Amino acid sequence: MPVCGLFSLNANIAEHWVYVPLAFILLAIALRVGQIVRGNRTTFISIIALATLWIAFLGVRTFYRALDWQDPRTFFARTIAAGGDSARMLINLGGLELSEGHLEQADMLLQRALAKNPEQPFALINLAAVALKRNDLSAARGFLERAQKNPVSLAQAEEMLAMVEQKEKGQINLLLLRMASQTDPPSWSIMRRYLAALAVTGQTEKAVAELQTVLATEWYRAESWQLLSEYLTRLGQTDEAAKALAQAHAFDVHLNDR
Q1: Angle CA(152)–CA(82)–CA(94) in degrees, nearest 5?
Q2: Percent of all residues in the chain with a pLDDT value above 70, rounded to a whole number
Q3: Residue 47: CA atoms inside 13 Å, Cβ hemisphere, count?
Q4: What is the pLDDT of residue 8?
Q5: For the whole model, what pTM was predicted?
Q6: Closest by alpha carbon to 88, among 120, 125, 65, 119?
Q7: How many other CB atoms sit within 10 Å of the CB of residue 65?
Q8: Are residues 43 and 37 in contact, defined by beta-carbon separation less than 8 angstroms?
């Protein structure tokens, strides 16, 4: 019998992890029941009939619920409507509304998620993004300062705080971006934004130095080598730029296709 709704599962276990062991438990139960009712034909037929109906019901339900997966909106909305309105589902749907520019709906869903889990880091990050789109910098800063307290959202919060300061003061906070890019685990997307900020402010040599530091440990990313080649070309170091570009192609043979 599926465990859906019977009891809560914590963050260290997922329902699909118990499917295989559950199959063997059900097989053991079936064999034991078979031994008990072997001499009673009526009871045996009744059990077989009930098991057949149950399997048919699960098959029909599986077919029906498979339609939930046609697109993200359908999945999130139907899951919430079926009683799965957890903070995670509300955040997922809120993030989708945000990406489509529906700020009112996104704000409502994310506030519901925050009501269920007051310091949920991704709800705070997404609410800050809503506030930024509304140009409500004070509210965005408030959400981000709360998100900074959680290691999971620290890097993203500091990156977005740099965006808030840029809107407030008209200049990029390079120190804050650098701190955001060097959190544990490091974020390449934030590092890339930091490097771009360095290049925009005329600090291309520093961008090269920072990128070479990254490549010392994260050498496997073709995009990093391609970016290094671009910066070296700007500095007029054509030979080094060509070597970096060759390295990028070595890691991604389809680099020219994009």
Answers
A1: 40
A2: 93
A3: 15
A4: 61
A5: 0.71
A6: 120
A7: 13
A8: yes
